[in-house]
Amino acid sequence: MQPVAAVTGSLDVQAWTSSPSLSSAANSAKGIDDPYGASGWASDSIRLLMGTPDANGDGIPDIWTLRVDGAVRFYAGSRTALSGSGTEIVGNGDGGWKNKMAIG
Q1: Which of 60, 76, 91, 103 makes a 20 to 30 Å CA pair with 15?
Q2: End-to-end Cα, the chain, rounded Å
Q3: How far apart are CA 38 and CA 31, in angstroms?
Q4: Residue 20: helix, strand or coil by DSSP?
Q5: Vertex 30 angle, CA 26 and 31, to 5°
């Protein structure tokens, strides 16, 4: 597994993955880093995020986010974009994960 550091909007994604396409621009499909994310992904709406190896069985790494309201969302990766607004895994009722210091 290789460490990953990629920029999405103004946020950094850090993860461990066996997919070399995420570890460097040279291993990407076009040989360059492409922006990969969605609008509204600034630090005032998403506190933490983490890229992970494939979590949904489609062979493509995925992204988990912790929003400022405490909600945890899952974004299935694809070859070109993220899945819209993602899937809420932990709601923000009772603060959700609002006070968590890290995910992963």
Answers
A1: 91
A2: 15
A3: 22
A4: helix
A5: 15
